[in-house]
Amino acid sequence: MSEELSDADRFFALVAAAQAGDIRLTSIQAGLLVAAELGIARDSRAFARKLGIAHSLVLRELNALAGRAGVVEIVKRDPRTMRVHYTLPPPSSP
């Protein structure tokens, strides 16, 4: 008997796969990348709220990712709410 994965199970499986592909990624960083790829969340506050994680932790991890060239692009920062909007860079051509 085959059961379909729930959305949460699928998300966490993709997070684990992202971490397996890049051992430098923390689980939050991998989650940020997967969430952007799937269109689940494209800003720090939405990601934090959906996963029940402190926004300050998400900001720290997102800033660490932004410090790595070509991983994420910061689109906009809201100084009032501290919300950071991000996107994945376009795939590089061979």
Number of strands: 2
Q: Please indicate the count of domains.
A: 1
Name of the CATH architecture: Orthogonal Bundle
Per DSSP, what share of the residues sits in E-state strands of 2 or more residues?
A: 5-15%
Class by alpha and beta content: mainly alpha
Q: Going by CATH, what is the homologous superfamily?
A: Winged helix-like DNA-binding domain superfamily/Winged helix DNA-binding domain
CATH class: Mainly Alpha
CATH topology: Arc Repressor Mutant, subunit A
Net shape: globular
Radius of gyration over C-alpha positions, nearest whole angstrom: 14 Å
Number of helices: 4
Which percent range fits the helix content?
A: 40-55%
Q: Which sequence of SSEs, written as H and E, runs from N to C?
A: HHHHEE
Strand order of the largest sheet: 1-2
Distance between the termini: 42 Å
Low-confidence stretches: none
Mean pLDDT: 88
Largest sheet: 2 strands, antiparallel
From the structure above, extract its key features.
single chain; 94 residues; mainly alpha
Give an overview in words:
With 94 residues, this protein is mainly alpha-helical. The chain has a single domain, classed as Winged helix-like DNA-binding domain superfamily/Winged helix DNA-binding domain (Arc Repressor Mutant, subunit A), CATH 1.10.10. The chain is 50% helix and 10% strand. The chain contains four helices and two strands; from the N terminus they run ααααββ. The chain has a two-stranded antiparallel sheet. β1 and β2 (84-87) form a beta hairpin. α1 packs across α2 (27-38) and α3 packs across α4 (55-66). The longest helix is centred in the first third of the chain and has 15 residues, at 7-21. This is Formate dehydrogenase F4B subunit.
